[in-house]
Write a structure and sequence with these properties.
The chain is mostly loops and 137 residues long. It contains 3 helices and no strands. The N and C termini lie far apart (58 Å).
């Protein structure tokens, strides 16, 4: 097998490393975890259908096959007492769109889609502008 390397290799752009050391076999100290934002303020979503972020600490929350601590506040029958927003009706639908009496198993593990809001700095620069804000100045 012969590989041809020519002018195309001169056009390569080197992307800076985001994590780890320059030497892949060297040891790197793990950075501290970002602190959770615990102000309970609901954040605006960045795009349609984005799962909302979790605006409170979930440290110590049990999320297992038999126990889901999130549902103690976010399930419909508990939202009035807890003041938490109710989980979406989509969490009660199976793959065929049939509404179930309880949370569908495919939406049971909340942290598969929802992440805790933290004060972590971005890894790369971000120049994102909401399309509603473009041209307004």
């Amino acid at each position: 097998m012969v590989l041809a390397v020519g002018a195309a290799s001169a056009d390569l752009t080197i992307v800076p490393r985001l994590t780890g050391a320059a030497d892949p076999m060297s040891e790197v100290q793990t950075p501290p975890l970002a602190r959770p934002v615990t102000d309970d303020v609901r954040r605006m979503r960045n795009y349609p259908e984005q799962p909302p972020v979790i605006p409170h600490s979930i440290e110590g929350y049990q999320l297992t096959l038999n126990t889901n601590r999130c549902l103690d506040c976010h399930k419909r029958e508990f939202t009035e007492g807890s003041g938490a927003p109710m989980i979406s009706v989509t969490h009660f639908m199976d793959r065929e769109g049939q509404v179930l009496a309880d949370v569908t198993p495919r939406r049971y593990f909340c942290t598969e889609c929802h992440v805790q809001q933290t004060d972590a700095a971005p890894l790369v620069p971000n120049t994102f502008q909401d399309m509603n804000q473009i041209g307004r100045n």
